[in-house]
């Protein structure tokens, strides 16, 4: 069967793709930026890639006619004022493009929408569902609440809060109830619905067997980790203060914190769960979902992470926009050094950032990350998805990986911190010589003043880092 998969570079899409291939399907992956798409070699014989932008209907004119089904896994967690209109426009473009294909079914993963007064993000999900339902195909909508899995935003926020804080003074939405579901069960439902006529033109809520408050979820995590934690809920914390609370304590971005707080005030409990009987699926408990997530982390088998999404980047971000490092009007800091062992240096470069750190004056990197967070930036808390693997599109602390080729010995990073300009950091290893180049393209006088103000720190940090990488 030929299946179209949108959102193939996203958290769910990356995990769904291997399941579809394992079932014998040919998968057409629709991605906005093909340079961010890195499927395992074992899957490549069963997939093809189409680069298209759902915002631009002209890019959707060449969908294969013989598509039999499609997955719509595209969501925005942006805080932009016009994101609801953009989501509707994207759904409309997608629906119209499918009319020229043989698609019999679209499967849409949405959020549980039980309340009359929905958050703006849940309302947007519902609007998209209504738009997709207008197509000449059968629509199956799966509505999920909190998804628990290694690398999911929900799991990582719970993990941050419990691991970092022994005592929490938390906002009142921690008493809101929800019904979490394990990522492996989400994948079972998504694949089980495929061309199953019993699911056509219906919507279903999917969730695990446990109905818990967010406070109970935090304490449940603490129990699994054998941590003693106390949580005090206070009614005086406003949504804005709640967003700041999440932003400064966890690794989430401020945009995502606003969206999450907005949605966490709404109770998300499953109502129509007939899908469990239709597909004979029995979701696992919250505790089992946590244990499965820990198992993936322990084995370093995290297939996808929300941190690699572009929610923190500029809206029109494509890797190709920044792969050519500019020279005109730019400041550069170039350093070179002979390396003792080329393979060892490459391994060090490919492990940089995250838990490994930056090899020299880490406290200065942490200070810069803290200052970025105070200014509304991403800081260092995103870390990295894998301890020793890097692919273009990944994040490394407050950098985005633009290009990574270990065989060439080249790694190019683009800064996503708050800056009065644009910045790149490049490593090139050739003939046992390591070349390290920092490039900054300033915006106005403030950009030039910024560059000169950090020059003394560059001398300390970049020189020390180069020495450590060259050992």
UniProtKB/TrEMBL annotation:
The chain crosses the membrane at residues 449-466. Residues 7-143 form the NAD(P)-binding domain. This is SDR family oxidoreductase. It comes from Carboxylicivirga mesophila. It comes from the Bacteria. It holds the Pfam family NAD_binding_10. The keyword Transmembrane applies. Signal peptide: none annotated. Keywords: Membrane, Transmembrane, Transmembrane helix.
